[in-house]
Amino acid sequence: MADVAARDPDEFSVGQWPDWSFWKDQPDGGGARNRGRVAVATAVSLASLTLIARAEDIAHGSGSPLLTSFAIGLVACYGVGCVLAAWYGPVARRRGRVAMVAVVFLLGAAPAVLLASPSHLTDLTYALAIGLMLLPLRRSLLLGLVTVLGQILWMSLARGEVAWVQVAVLVGVTAALGTVFALSFTIGHLRAAREQVRRLAVNEERARVARDMHDILGHSLSTMTVKLGLTRRILESSGDVALAVGQVTELENMARTALSDIRATVSDYRTLSLDSELAGARLALRAAGVRADLPAETDAVRGGLREVFGYVVREAVTNVLRHSDAEVCAVRVGPDWVEVVDNGSSSGGASAGNGLTGLAERLAAVSGTLEHGPAPGGGFRVVARGPAPATGPAPSPSQEAEPT
Question: What DSSP assignment string belongs to 54-65?
Fold first, then answer.
């Protein structure tokens, strides 16, 4: 049975407190401007539709001057209270909201009680609208129902008949104002959600560029460092200028390729090929003096996984060049998996750095997984698996012969 208490916080509930935090959290002052618009609109509508008309009605009544003045003062306080509640209420705590609604409701009902006139309860439309704005829907609707029933009952007992027009005005204006607040609430949340999506898109793009730059520069600089060391040893030991020039030429080509990859990455037009990464791995491992045991062909790898597997080969071989004293590095591929194993010390690659973390994110994007750790026979092992094909499970890397 589903747990009814485990409710999604974004799911609507009649017992949920309206969340106006998007007004408070806007750094450009947009929240204050929106609250100011609501407060000004409340003040204008109160002055033009309720306060002036009610004050004139009370002034022309038959009450004593002191009672009339006090009632008009309560009407003015009611208007000020509604404006202040519309301004401070959205950013107030729950107790503060309840207190605001109670105060404006009492100020709005006081003239009706003081003058014994149930028709004055129609002015509570703004207090009820403030309740719809600040309280959970369940409580605000209950407050509105009690107000309407109280006005109907009071009219029936005091006059013997009900002025249904005034009751309709109470219900209709309250519903209209509540709809305005609901629209403001919805529009504000949509804008906040759009801003959050924009920030997430920017962060995701930054992470993509950082991940690609790490993959490109890490592999290229590691290979270039190995080749520079080889060139230095050639010049120091044998002085073979021709061989050294050949190494420098390869370094120049690598630098140009890395620069081209960086430009393509920034422009988001860069694609990786598993075959090209295997060829580059062969050159890099050979320059480092590591014997490369690589697959002769990669036709068995599914097309949708070839690019991400190219990243796996690149990062795993880069780690071999950086952190390992391996003599042999073997790569095995299958339809939905790739395995890179070396026989060097596993201590350098045992911890997940930025490269392996980036690989895990890339594989997660294609519903794949990444495993890395010490190999059973010694060394370090990286295994990437994609989603299994629908035709049936492919043989796992453990079913292949272990690399020598």
Answer: HHHHHHTSSS-H
